[in-house]
């Protein structure tokens, strides 16, 4: 057995090493940006869900207040002294209705914001697919360039060998020709 071990392949060229480092850093940058985008989306979505819950809770409170106010108005109509209270209650009902209308508008805006976020996420997914396709194409181009260099090297070696054989054949013909 031999005690010495030799590496079969030559060391990779600097340009190949640099290209591989660049591709690896591009991959890490893209991965980090996707993770950051997902975290931002999750945070935004969580905030929207919390706001929606608050709006729904406030809406239920407003409905309860409206019901209580309407009951109060029904009781207040029985007495002449309570007419003033009834008017106040009606003003309160009107203000609660206005507040409810504002809350419904706010919920509609939140719904539009949710739809916008969904649209943005679809666009983000499409862009990620495009980036992946582009990276795959770049990798294919790099592979083809490497294969082309290897073939050129093999062809040049074959031409050299062919010239050597032709020279030897000429020498043999000269020797036999004499």
Question: How do the strands and helices of this protein lay out in sequence?
Answer:
Blueprint lengths: L13 H63 L6 H95 L1
Helix pairs in contact: 1-2
General description of the model:
This protein is mostly helical. Helix 1 packs antiparallel against helix 2. It is built from two helices and no strands.
Task: Identify the notable features of this structure and list them briefly.
single chain; 178 residues; mainly alpha
In short:
The chain is rod-shaped, with a radius of gyration of 40 Å.
First-last Cα distance: 51 Å
Low-confidence stretches: none
Helix tally equals: 2
- Number of E-type strands: 0
Characterize the main sheet.
Answer: none
Instruction: Report helical residue fraction.
Output: over 70%
The coarse silhouette is rod-shaped
Mean pLDDT: 87
Element-level helix/strand string: HH
Class per helix and strand makeup: mainly alpha
Radius of gyration: 40 Å
